[in-house]
Design brief:
The chain has 108 residues and is mainly beta. The chain contains one helix and seven strands, in the order ββαβββββ. 11% of the residues lie in helices and 31% in strands.
């Protein structure tokens, strides 16, 4: 199993703390988990949910402004848990393209 998680902001639900993101910095945070058995996926998934992903074996974490995901055969991908399309897919930060109204007490 191969998993790629890309984030630009914290999820709206607090129990998953995948990244220390800032939606204003123009950077995507990418977590790649590669070639894990089902048993290891369950073990590591619990650690990711708890926010402990930095030192997991078989993982890579890096910042980027743009990422392209290509696969040998088209594979489905989802955005916010909804099926969105198939690979290949290119994801890029476009600074200041989305206006969001937030409260004065916002925290990133």
């Amino acid at each position: 199993m191969f998993t790629v998680i890309i984030a630009n902001s914290k999820p709206s639900f607090d129990y998953i703390k995948t990244f220390k993101t800032n939606p204003q910095d123009g950077i995507l945070d990418v977590l790649i988990i590669s070639e894990l058995s089902k048993k290891k996926v369950l073990r590591y998934l619990f650690q990711i949910i708890r926010g402990r992903y930095e030192n997991l074996p078989q993982t890579s974490i890096f910042p980027t402004r743009k990422i392209t995901i290509k696969t040998a055969a088209p594979l489905p991908f989802s955005i916010d848990g909804e099926n969105f399309g198939e690979t290949p897919v290119e994801i890029e930060v476009v600074p200041k393209k989305l206006k969001v109204i937030v409260g004065r007490q916002r925290q990133f």
